[in-house]
Amino acid sequence: MPVNYSVGSVGLVASYDGDYTVAELEVDKGGERARLFRFRAGGDRWTQNDLSCPLPAEGREWAPAGVVAQKKTLWWFDLSWGLLSCDAFVADPVLLFHKLPEDRALGMARPDIHTHRCVTVSRRELRYVEIIPEDGGDGHDKEAATVSMWTRRMATPAGWEWDKKYSMRFKELWDDDTYKDTGLPRKVPVLSAVCPSNPDLVYFALEQRLFGVDLPVHKVVEAADEAHELVNMPWPAPASCRYVHAWNLPPWVARDLDLVRFSSSDEDEDQTEELDEEELVKLGMEAAMRMDPSTLKSEVDNFYDYEGPPSPEREVMRQMRGPFSFWLTSEEADADLMEVHRRIMKKRRREE
Questions:
Q1: Which of 279, 300, 130 is nearest to 215 (CA)?
Q2: 36: which strand partners?
Q3: Which part of the chain is the DUF1618 domain (predicted)?
């Protein structure tokens, strides 16, 4: 492995066919050049690409805070400035720079920035979350503090934009009975994580306790009864997004880790079988949408309306476009699963 520039610069991206790439991005001081080191599944060595770095000429250094994967794209982020992205699987990647939403950029990175800012992927889309105190305060005991989420979306073929998904004032949460039941004080917490399958569910930490909030409805939906403990971290390091990673575990993995309870009752066994059958149908629908390589290439070319030989400019435009996918949208998938559930229940009623 190359000399590690920062653990916040190393990312992992996997494809649906089992291929994966480990990548580390090194950005030179001054931000004009960068190097991308990659190791792919089945390979026997690291490869290096020297890249032009698109950072704005602001006379500042890139402060890596982490990296997330969205389909085939890796997104490295500086929580005080913006994001760098590239397709991790192409032979000649092009590095792109993306600003933080609205006016959220800072003049420099702060040591505790990870306690109130987060970049993550939830429901296959890139999200930026921030706790924002009023009037530039420190965020503690400020009832006007808010937590906001933005989603990265394609605006035009020439660029991206951030859409604000929601904002919640902490006062609205503190006044709700679900928060009062936790016994926690009226104090702005640390931002910990976003649920990978539900962007409305955000996790926070306060007084060594983790709790999950459904932000659009201002309610606590999960709360740990015991104090958390970070692995190999001296107390009292906050359980911020720098140290907490949310995983969407398959049911059989959760069972093996004893993270869910199971009963031997017939009702629970039926429910487990029903969920397994729903999952199998879902996987079947996804597999049915896959195409052979030649058909897929033809459809993608038609979708992007490519004409003429490839060029560096076309490659940049291709990487700036949203990843082409035959996968269902979240709404379509939810609707299909509801229909699957209805048909399963109808079948069981006929068999009874």
A1: 130
A2: 25, 49
A3: 76-203
Residues 336 and 330: their CA atoms lie apart, in Å, by: 10
Beta carbons within 10 angstroms of residue 9's beta carbon: 20
Amino acid, res. 307:
E
pLDDT of 294: 52
If phi > 0 it is left, if psi is from -120 to 50 it is alpha, else beta; for residue 295 that is: alpha
Q: Angle at which helices 266-288 and 330-351 pack, to 10 degrees?
A: 130
- Work out the percent of the chain whose per-residue pLDDT is above 90: 35
In angstroms, rounded to a whole number, what is the distance separating the alpha carbons of residues 38 and 136?
40
Q: Could you tell me where the beta strands, DSSP code E, fall in 88-215? A: 96-99, 117-122, 125-132, 146-156, 159-169, 190-194, 201-206, 209-214
Using CA atoms, how far apart are residues 232 and 238, in angstroms rounded to an integer?
13
220 to 3, 127, 164, 202, 228: CA distances (angstroms) = 43, 21, 22, 10, 17
At 240, is the secondary structure helix, strand, or coil? Answer: coil
* 220-241 mean pLDDT: 74
Q: How far apart are CA 131 and CA 112, in angstroms?
A: 12
Among 224, 216, 152, 164, residue whose Cα is nearest residue 189 = 224
pLDDT at residue 137, as a whole number = 47
